[in-house]
Design brief:
Layout (H helix, E strand, L loop, with lengths): L1 H18 L4 H11 L3 H6 L3 H14 L2 H6 L1 H10 L15 H16 L3 H7 L1 H12 L6 H20 L11 H8 L5 E4 L9 H5 L5 E2 L4 E2 L19 E4 L8 H12 L14 H11 L9
Antiparallel strand pairs: 1-4, 2-3
The protein binds iron/sulfur cluster (3 copies).
The site of one iron/sulfur cluster has 14 residues, from helix 12.
Length: 291
């Protein structure tokens, strides 16, 4: 987590330095970092950069959002101002909103509408805001930039990565790719005591502890949820933890199918001891099983 924050801060610093022409060396590094930005790469047909991010997102999830996007760094800065006692909680994804944002940006870019590159795509928006706010002139652009910054910072302060998972046009494509990323946040149901500390720490509001899943389409791979777990039950890993006890898997299946009257002893081929244990717990299934 420390390495991620260091990389994110360094990239945001150098990109800002390049935008402001601050120092030859800093600007040079910043301009290299700008070549990694997704939408400029897409509009410039930098296929190597696009292929790189496709592979990285497929393997590691939304590393781009946690480390490389300067607008993500800005939202994280505002989120850090939240009082520690104000926890996050799980929210449902706003898939329709982020899909509309993505389709709108695509249509505007195809039609070569300048506002798309300057005020809608995340890197262009960051660059426009930084340049407008540091120009020292009271222009309309500076006023809009101040308003946009205030909106993004307020959203981040109140709801963490809400902007990233609703209004940012890159949220939909990145989330679609990251949904089944190889490395992912995995919750061990055998260890989890449902203390909810990971939910409280998740600024993407994507950990559903009822179902023990983290929505990787919204997870920005910040690792905030890992150190807070007292039971070592949550991990960023390749493996997908399944309920270790086959009987628990059957109960979960029955819960999903909502068939409480179906006999639990569905494994008739198993040995007699297994059958007797399933019979013992089959009675309470009229109620909500707990695990
Ligand atoms: S969701 Fe958009 S604004 Fe947020 S970090 Fe990712 S690319 Fe940047
Ligand atoms: S699930 Fe964990 S790593 Fe992903 S956004 Fe939430 S806190 Fe960060
Ligand atoms: S912090 Fe750990 S034990 Fe608590 S709910 Fe999250 S995964 Fe479960």
């Amino acid at each position: 987590m420390i390495a991620r924050v260091t990389i994110q801060s360094a990239i945001a610093f150098f990109i800002t330095a390049a935008l402001l022409n601050y120092g030859v060396a800093c600007s040079a590094i910043g301009r290299r970092a700008e070549t990694l930005q997704l939408v400029p790469a897409a509009t410039g047909l930098a296929l190597t950069v696009l292929a790189f991010w496709l592979a990285v997102t497929l393997i590691f999830g939304r590393i781009y959002c946690s480390s490389v996007c300067p607008l993500g760094a800005l939202t994280d800065l505002a989120t850090r101002l939240r009082p520690a006692r104000r926890p996050f909680r799980y929210r449902r994804p706003l898939n329709a909103v982020r899909t509309i944002a993505f389709l709108s940006l695509t249509a505007l870019l195809v039609c070569r509408v300048a506002i798309a590159a300057e005020w809608i795509e995340p890197f262009g928006l960051y660059a426009t805001v930084v340049i407008a706010l540091t120009s020292g002139r009271a222009t309309l652009a500076a006023a809009i930039a101040a308003a946009v910054t205030a909106v993004i910072a307020t959203m981040a302060y109140r709801r963490g990565r809400l902007f990233c998972n609703s209004l940012c046009p890159l949220s939909a494509p990145l989330g679609f790719i990251a949904r089944r990323s190889a490395f992912h946040i995995d919750i061990n149901t055998d260890r989890c005591t449902q203390c909810r500390r990971c939910v409280d720490a998740c600024k993407a509001e994507c950990i559903d502890i009822q179902d023990h899943v983290a929505d990787m389409s919204r997870c920005v791979v910040c690792f905030n949820c890992l150190p807070v777990c007292p039971d070592d039950a949550i991990a960023y890993t390749l493996s997908r933890h399944n309920l270790s006890d086959p009987l628990m898997q059957k109960i979960k299946t029955l819960k999903t199918e909502n068939k409480p009257s179906t006999p639990l002893a569905c494994d008739n081929t198993s040995n007699s001891s297994a059958t007797s244990s399933t019979t013992e717990i089959s009675k309470p299934t009229a109620q909500e099983p707990e695990h």
